[in-house]
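Let's study my pick:
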Amino acid sequence: MSEKLSCPVVRDLLPSYAEGLTEEETSRAVAAHLEDCADCAARYAAMTAPTPETEHREEKQVDYLKTVRRKAWKKAALAALAALGAVVLGALIFLFVIGSPVNENSVYVGAEVRPEQDVLRIQYGMTDSGKCFAFLHTQSEDGIVTLSGRSVLASPWSKSGDGWVDVPLSETREVWAFGRLIWKDGVRISREAARIFDARTPYVGNAPAVGQLLSRLEQGKDLMPQVPYTMELQTKQEPYGVTIRFSQGMPRYEMDKMEQGALLLLALVDNLGEVRWSCPGYDFVLTAQDARELLTQWQEDWPDGTERVPWRDIKEYGKSVLGVALLLP
């Protein structure tokens, strides 16, 4: 568009020009005309100047956006608070109402025979004074009684952390309390017996396993002298053996404690044939055959010998936790 535009033409184009709707060449021609024509420039300025109504509309739009943002923020905050509240409520319900399963490490259990009532009284209690039982479930089937439960944090509505339950002796062969066998065929199964039985091993040549078994015996009651020792294994020819050398002398009655520990070693290491133990001044040995003779003597000498010592083969005692319990002092 090489010719200059006249005022009437420019005035017709101003509305489209103001809205940016004219072609590029037309826009340049209109702009050139406005530079030279004060009257058309004044009309254009008046046309594009903001009016009070426009300003009010823009202010309303800004206020609306602020309101929308404020509401969105409130909704987000409420949603976050609701989520946090749900998490806290769920945690409180779990800690004080639902709880977690009770296991053998979180509860102490005892068993006492009451012959006058022909019952076995099972006493139990939480080891953590800040916890109590949410509920206790007792199930009996085919002579096997099972106790289970859940523990929660102590609260005004849950305060009991201990209790007892009676089960009929004549109908009970085994009692399992919170995952652990505590009674079998008339014999109490202590936690110590279970720990020692769990350390059994088939091979005397497995030094770490034999060492762990000795450590469990050392922690037991009257099973080994409480004196530092070294261990030697004999695995070249039968009878395979274990030798325990105590580093210092001790009275004979202390060394005699090792006899019970030696019986347990022979029972719980399948291919072990003899156990030797010594200290300055004493030297002892117990073979599998010696153990048979000793068990036979106990059967004959004790009034309830066949009940206390049902087997003469020492290896039979290593096949179950009941056998270990029978060998414990």
